[in-house]
Amino acid sequence: MTSRRWAVLGGALLLVGWQLLAIRLGSLLMATPWQTLQAMARLPFEADFRLHAGTSLLRIVLGVGLGCLLGFCLGLLAGLDARVRGLLEPLRWLLMSVPPVVVVVLAMLWVGLGSAMVVLISVLMLAPGMYVNTVKGMQMVDRGLLEMARVYRFSPWQKLRRLYIPSLTAPLGAALLIATCGGVRLVVMAEVLGAESGAGFALANARSTFDSAGLYAWTLLILLLVAALEFLLLQPLQRRMGRWQEAAHA
């Protein structure tokens, strides 16, 4: 049996387990898969659906984009200069060690509720992962190639384009996948804890009103968003980056 068939079987087992657990717990605590699908079909016709969905998407784009860009730029600087790397190491360790919920509480105190808080949390939590992968990729560049670039007097842009970027494609592709999926979770968590709109806010409302079907419908919608980002955007991007790396090394 191929891996794809095993994946289908695993999904079917999850649905069966979900159905059995929902029957045991009751509809007040857990909606069945069919009830969830019915609620999800009604979501687009609700008054605030576009507001919540659009707000969350914007926050995800800003949070993931700014976090990855900041981590990448700082990683480039740290990879080129050990002094910068040493200077940033305590901050990197701090951000990767502190629990996200602590960052949420601090961000609420610093900037209040709303999009600024959600985006700030995403940037602070996602930048360190991109930074670490960028630095590791920079350190993987062949020292012989760097010496050749010095002999032939490559400009900084030529070094970046011909040496560093091809070496960074693999670690950055993996880091971008992790950051995007993690960014969705961070945005939703921040919205649940301290936002006045967005998918997380809708989840919190469904929980407070014991709307089990609506709660699971929003959850399933978020899972579908993560799947769409991974399979339609990130995996094709990784394949393209892999071809770029092969072309650069040819």
TrEMBL record:
SUPFAM superfamilies: MetI-like
Record GO cellular component, one term: plasma membrane
Keyword Transmembrane: yes
UniProt cross-references to CDD domains, sorted A to Z: TM_PBP2 (cd06261)
Keyword annotations from UniProtKB, A to Z: Cell membrane, Membrane, Transmembrane, Transmembrane helix, Transport
Entry-linked Pfam families: BPD_transp_1 (PF00528)
Subcellular location: Cell membrane
Membrane topology of the entry: Multi-pass membrane protein
Identification of the protein by name: ABC transporter permease subunit
Organism, as annotated: Pseudomonas denitrificans
